[in-house]
Structures are given as C-alpha cells and as structure tokens.
Amino acid sequence: MQKKRSLLCSILFAALAVSCGLAAVHAQNPPPAVGKTAAQEFKNIQVLKDVPADRIIPAMQFISASLGVECEHCHVEHAFDKDDKKPKKIARSMMEMMMNINKENFEGHREVTCYSCHRGALNPVSVPIISAEEKMPEMPMASKEDEKPALPRPEALLEKYLAAVGGADALNKITTRVQKGSISFGDQKAPFNVYSKAPYMRLSTVHRKDMDSVTAYDGKNGWMSVPGRVRPMNAQESEGARMDADLALPTHLESMFSKLETKEGEAIEGHETWQVIGLREGKPPVRLFFDQQSGLLLRLVRYTDSPLGLNPLQIDFADYRDSGGIRTPFRWTQSRPGNHFRVQIESSQTNVHIEDSIFAAPPPPPPPVQK
Ligand code: HEC
Ligand code: HEC
User: Cα of 88 to ligand 2 centre, how many Å?
Assistant: First the structure.
C-alpha cells in the first residue's frame, strides 16, 4: 500500500515534518504560532479543537503510521481542510470512538489507540490468523524461571557504557567534532556532514545538486531548513535534537532521568542486549539498548507525543571506531514508521575550530512576491 518516497520527499519529510506531495501544508499554513489551539490555527478542526496547534501534524503522522497510509488517503492535495474524502470523515468518528473507549474503560488513560486495532493496515483483522508455523504455548516451568540471570542494575549498564567509549575524562576533552560521509535513503545516496560543538551545538547537512537540507540545534533550540524555507523545531523535537547534539551524552544519561529500569533487550545484529528504560515525569520514556558484551549503545528509541498516540523514532548505532580517543559510531540508521535512512561516516576529526555562528538559524525567507 505504502508508496515509496523519493529522496527529496524523505528529506522534506524529515525536515518539514510533512509527507511528500503535501509539503504545501506548511506553505499554506506558516508554522503554528505558539499558544494557539488547533481550532484557532486551522480551518476545519472538529474533534482535536483544543489541542495545541503544533500537535496537529504529529497527530496526523501518528494516524498515517497506524493505518499504513499517506496523507492523500484522507486529504485532497493543497486543501487539508476539505472533507471531500470519506476516510477523513470516518477518521474523525474513529477519533471520537477511541477517546470514548479510553474514557469509559481506562479512566481516560490513552491505552487504546488507532494502532491497537489497525496495526499498520486500513482494515483491522477480527479473526485470529492461522499461522503457517505451529506454535506451542510455552509451559511455565518454575526451574526455568529460577535459572534466569538477574538483571544488571541500570546504573551499572550506564557506567559500563561510559567506560566502553573511553571514560568521562576523555569525553570531556572533546570540544568539537566534524564528521563527513554519506546518507542513503533506499538506493539513493548523498553527501552528509555533521558539525558538533560542546556544549550542545550540532548541524548536519545533506548535500544534493539541487538543494541542501540542514538540521541543527544551536544550544537552545532546534531548526531545519531546505532552500527558501526554515522551520523551528517544536519543544519535543528540540529535546531529541539536544540529545543528538551532546558530545558527552554518556556522562549525562544518568542525570537525565528520574527513574531507570533494566529489561531484557532484543538481539540487535546478532548482539544480545540489555534494555535500559529512562523515565521522566510527564514525558515519554527513552529506551537504550546496550551490547551485553561490549557495553556499547546499539539502539536508542525515543518518542514524541501526539494527541492520539506516541510517534516512535529509533536510531541504531554500529561500526564503532576511535575518534579522538573516543569510541564513536561511524554508522547509524534512523527509522520512523514508513521512513528510514542510513548514515555512513568516512572521516571524523576532533577539536578543530568551528564558529558558533554556523549553528544559528538563518532568518526566514521573505514572503513570495505575488505576480
Ligand atoms: C486517516 C485519515 C487521515 C490521514 C491519513 C491524515 N489525516 Fe489529516 N486530518 C484528518 C482528520 C479527520 C482531520 C480533522 C481533525 C478534526 O476534525 O479534529 C485532519 C486534519 C488535518 C489538518 C487540518 C486542516 C484544516 O485546516 O482544518 C491538516 C493540516 C492535516 N490534517 C494534515 C495531514 C497530513 C500532513 C497528513 C499526512 C502526514 C495527514 N493529515 C494524514 C484525517 C487524516
Ligand atoms: C477499537 C478498534 C479501532 C480503533 C481504536 C480504531 N479503529 Fe479505525 N477501524 C476499525 C475497524 C474495525 C474498521 C473497519 C470497519 C469496516 O470494515 O467497515 C476501521 C476503519 C477505519 C477507517 C476506514 C478504512 C478505509 O478503508 O479507509 C479509517 C479511515 C479509520 N478506521 C481510521 C481510524 C483512526 C484515525 C483511528 C484512531 C483515531 C482508528 N481508526 C481507531 C477499528 C478501529
């Protein structure tokens, strides 16, 4: 069902948080002003009226991922407010149904979401599927339970990670890093550079002959741009970008969370992992998967909240090499539902001079001249 996105679309999707063909949403509607409700900002909001305006696009991304469709399934191009398509009207009543289910059965906690039923498809399956493989229910065996190794303390895993990358002293000596390599989306590839500077500044560029796109964090706020368009990140995106910009992240992980838990993690490219779940008051969790052997971070999963459910973002780290005395991933894969890209770094330099000014957002472009 899902259409393959072009490289340009993938960049636009990442940079402007809209899917392709519909990049116009931000052209028609400038970035929502802080403090406005959805009903004040958009033309035809009936259910999500009172949510902050900047939560509408994340809600739309959540719906699209839950149903496995593009925006066009419900919207006509260039006119998101129109109710011309039947699925849009159904979606509205589904939102109300979902809210009622949670209100009446789960004390208003958002337990059931679009994804609970849809699981990435338009038509939920209501009959149990007959699997080709025969699956026997596991017999509970007391002895097996007892044999399970005790889970390591989460703090011990974070310490092991810090030691594995080279330790706090070595990390704190890194003031800047410049990484050059390539980014690939499916079978398309483009040059990719990352400039990082302590504390918390980062700028990455995707270079194409027709356009450069930039994702950056200036120490306080994140922003993204393609030629002629700059978009500030919302608070949640900025928080994620701050993590990415932290050159000494392994020294800060423990203090970032109010509570830490260990769980067994899934195997990642053949490596057994421990999962550390970091919890913070009133915010979605962050999941960190550490290699049981090396102690290195192999996967990070974080979420941005939307009025209808959580949008996940997963970053897998691999190809750890030495860079300025620190073990650093030279390859990472960033995935969201229906969209993923891979970065391969070829060269990495540390402690070279970088001006602070490169991290600042450019001024917004002048409005287009009416002909
Ligand atoms: C399954 C159907 C569905 C999909 C897929 C979907 N939307 Fe929506 N969209 C809706 C519904 C329903 C509303 C109205 C919500 C309400 O009334 O509270 C809406 C409203 C909007 C609005 C507000 C329009 C206005 O001015 O009133 C925008 C903008 C929008 N969607 C963008 C998107 C984008 C971008 C995507 C793809 C990432 C998308 N939508 C995917 C169903 C959908
Ligand atoms: C409790 C289960 C459940 C939840 C939760 C749920 N749906 Fe559905 N949805 C269904 C079922 C079942 C159908 C199919 C009905 C049919 O076949 O006529 C459906 C159909 C739809 C359709 C029509 C499919 C098409 O062919 O275009 C849309 C659109 C839709 N749902 C959107 C949503 C959205 C958006 C949410 C979350 C706000 C949601 N649904 C939550 C059960 C659910």
Answer: 11
Residues touching ligand 2 (Cβ under 6 Å) are: 63, 67, 87, 90-91, 94-95, 98, 112, 114, 116-118, 122-124, 308
Do 198 and 174 contact (CB within 8 A), yes or no?
A: yes
What do you get for the CA distance between the two ends of the chain, in Å?
39
Q: Could you identify the atom of ligand 1 that is nearest to the CA of residue 22? A: 35
Pocket test for ligand 2, best of 85, 89, 90 (most atoms within 8 A of CB): 90
pLDDT tens track for 195-229: 999 999 999 999 988 789 999 999 999 999 988 88
Which of 238, 251, 190, 258 shows the shortest CA–CA distance to 10? 190
Ligand 1 center–CA 155 separation, angstroms: 42
* Residue 335, Cβ density class (10 Å: 0-12 exposed, 13-18 middle, ≥19 buried): middle
The alpha carbon of residue 285 and the mean position of all alpha carbons in its chain are separated, in whole angstroms, by 12
Residue 331 reports pLDDT greater than 80 = yes
Tell me how far the alpha carbon of residue 163 is from its chain's centroid: 27
Q: Which residues contact 219 (CB under 8 A, 6 or more apart)?
A: 199, 200, 201, 245, 359
Q: Does 342 have pLDDT greater than 80?
A: yes
| 198: Cα separation from own chain's centroid | 22
CA-proximal residue: ligand 1, atom 22 (nearest):
80
Are 265 and 289 a contacting pair, CB within 8 Å?
Answer: yes
Residues contacting 151, CB < 8 A, separation 6+: 262, 263, 264, 274
Residue 274 in contact with residue 231, Cβ under 8 Å?
A: no
pLDDT digits 0-9 by tens, 30-51: 555 568 999 999 999 999 999 9
Ligand 1 pocket test: pick from 5, 42, 48, 80 the residue with the most ligand atoms within 8 Å of its Cβ: 80
Burial class for 48, CB neighbours closer than 10 Å (0-12, 13-18, 19+): buried
Residue pair 230/224 in contact by the 8 Å Cβ criterion:
yes
Cis geometry, peptide bond prior to residue 329 (ω within 30 degrees of 0) = no
